[in-house]
Amino acid sequence: MGTYLLTGVTGQVAESVAVALAADHEVVGLARFTDAAARDRLESAGVRCVVADLASADFADVPPGADALVNFAVVKSQRWDLDLRSNAEGIGLLTAHVRPGRLLHCSSTGVYAPAGAEVLDERSPLGDNHRAIMPTYSISKIAAEEVVRTMCRLLEVPTTIARLNVPYGVGPDGTPRGWPAFHLAMMEAGMPIPLFPGEPNLFNPIDLDDIAATVPALLDAATVPATVLNWAGHEQVGLEEWCRYLADRCGYDARFEATTSTIGGVTVDTTAMEAVTGPNRVAWRDGFGRLADAWLARAGH
Ligand SMILES: NC(=O)c1ccc[n+]([C@@H]2O[C@H](COP(=O)([O-])OP(=O)(O)OC[C@H]3O[C@@H](n4cnc5c(N)ncnc54)[C@H](OP(=O)(O)O)[C@@H]3O)[C@@H](O)[C@H]2O)c1
């Protein structure tokens, strides 16, 4: 793949991907750049930063014709019109503007109907998984998938839709990223971790290094109509288990509070992904160990 255009480039996930790709490729990064420090880091790594807002869909400064458009942007305002417009219409209009050679759209396993510990493959029923914590999220991610599928067929842009499970890892600036890092912050503050009733709450966390490493293969797998895959670690890990592991490594007490005001486990089949990408490289205990080390290495610890 020659040139990449990455949206959401300052985000928890995309910054790592952009920095990794920029070592060997021309990478243009798109965001509003509300985080000026992230922009500085990206530009230092060789990423060309272009300001655009998916809500207004003014793409005048966005160069057309990238070999690959990779969409990591997400708007989580919880305002229905804004989130649907930005997440669904936004990627459709951007695809029409860029006319990329290929499209990788980052979706979420939060598009699946809640199913407890059942292992979900790509044909599993969709539903409003994240309603309890982010009312617009699952529905706008489902809507985005459908816009992407339509643009794929309309413009004949080979496309992969990859449904990400739980990303985590250490960012290019050495900071811990993802939901497990949020759990570390809660445990450090002595707060209980919300836990959906009924253990274990299984997920398939995936390290940022594996996410970055699998992007080229996911693009190679792009088709018309779109290929749809889960994007996740092959190991099932309970949220309870990873919190206890992180707590042990960092000297915290892992306490849990049963509540239905959180999401339950979402665990997925990775067979289709692995047929394209091969197995992930980072075992969860190694990745979470690095996360804990980065947490402890923060200034002031
Ligand atoms: N984090 C997770 O646990 C998780 C789990 C499953 C799937 N995913 C998916 O993974 C992808 C990346 O998520 P993330 O957690 O890394 O996101 P994030 O940290 O919230 O970052 C969102 C990115 O989108 C940009 N953005 C927000 N509003 C925008 C707008 N109106 N126009 C243009 N850009 C805008 C932000 O930059 P500006 O604000 O500067 O514009 C930022 O770069 C998303 O598709 C998400 O649904 C995430």
Measured between the Cα atoms of the first and last residue, the distance is 41 Å
In the CATH hierarchy, what is the class of the largest domain? Alpha Beta
> Care to count the β-strands?
16
CATH architecture call of the largest domain? 3-Layer(aba) Sandwich
CATH topology of the largest domain: Rossmann fold
CATH superfamily of the largest domain: NAD(P)-binding Rossmann-like Domain
Classify the beta-strand content into a percent band.
15-25%
> What sort of overall outline do the alpha carbons produce when their principal axes are compared?
globular
- Helix and strand element order: EHEHEEHEEHEEEHEEEHEEHEEHH
Rg, nearest Å: 18 Å
The assigned structural class equals alpha/beta
Small-molecule components bound: NADP nicotinamide-adenine-dinucleotide phosphate
Write the layout of secondary structure elements.
Layout: E1 3-7, H1 14-22, E2 26-31, H2 36-44, E3 48-51, E4 68-71, H3 80-98, E5 102-108, E6 119-120, H4 137-155, E7 159-164, E8 166-170, E9 176-178, H5 179-188, E10 193-195, E11 202-203, E12 205-207, H6 208-220, E13 227-231, E14 237-238, H7 239-250, E15 256-258, E16 267-268, H8 271-277, H9 284-296
Parallel strand pairs: 1-2, 1-4, 2-3, 4-5, 5-7, 6-16, 7-13, 8-12, 10-15
Antiparallel strand pairs: 8-9, 11-14
The structure holds NADP nicotinamide-adenine-dinucleotide phosphate.
